[in-house]
Amino acid sequence: MIYLDYQATTPLAPEAREAMLPWLVGPEAMGFANPHSPHRPGRMAAAAIEIAREQVAALFPPGGRVVFTSGATEALNLAILGSGRRHLAVSAIEHAAVLETARFADPDVAVLPVDATGLVNPEAELPSEVELVAVMQINNEIGTIQPVERLAQRARAAGALVVCDAVQGAGKLAAPAGADLVAISAHKLHGPKGIGALWIRDGVELSPQVHGGGQEGGLRSGTLSPALCAGFGAAAQLAAARCEADAAHVAALWEAARAALPGFVLNGSETERWHGNLNLRREGLDVARLMSGLRNIAFSAGSACASGSGKPSHVLRAIGLSDKEARSSIRLGFGRYTGMSEVAEACAQIAAAADAQ
Prior knowledge:
By secondary structure, the protein is an alpha/beta fold.
């Protein structure tokens, strides 16, 4: 199987797996201990979590704190709903975790449009009463890098908080400058599933959305998993160390894939993008038939969370594509463990299958 769906999830890094193992062992080593217990095994587990917190926090600038969550969806809910802000503006290409949460908080949420290249206009007009602006760092469907810093400057000048979904950018790009609240997910940077984090700028106050024992500084109740935290921390540390090498690797894969797929048109900006994401369309392409015929290649037609809806991608529609064009698009995702020979083989099969339709 050739795996080309890195936007949906990434393989667990061996280093992350090794960091997790001591906290998954049996009774003898006490790795199962509750990190919120006062005894020695509990304190050891708690210390492991704090080491992991420091490793994840190193992805962000000074002047903030990291709160562990079950994933980015929970982190974004905490950021948006916990802020108490009720007049919101979000970009048209946000993930459902932002769009649906924003609509829940503000049924009249303002939607900031994107241009044909998939970029939000950094000078887009913000509602006069806006209290919170949400814009992602890298779009999960088309890979475009958004002008977060400029939008953040304008939003904060208007007195609004800035929330950024940095799930696709964490460990790949520098933390989004100017954001007040940043959500990330471990399994998108070669860590384990089931854990994410919210970075909160100093001075920003939130109300908890999960109530109970008051863990995570009173913001997120529930027993933390030392294993998941340790894996997250190791993956974050590795991503930071390999950032430049990983970027160069995926850029080479992206160029090779584009050259191997003539007749396909790029969706999204050619330049303002993360090269681990290649979203392409081809006129008349039957994507469902293509995917069913290439069962040895794992790729997608868009966001994994919306794959069963049957609806055209809201991201592709936002950049001006028709429903037909959106449905003739595929997404190939590359990453650290993708080999050049795998990309060459996959693209040759995709091209041949598309030609045969």
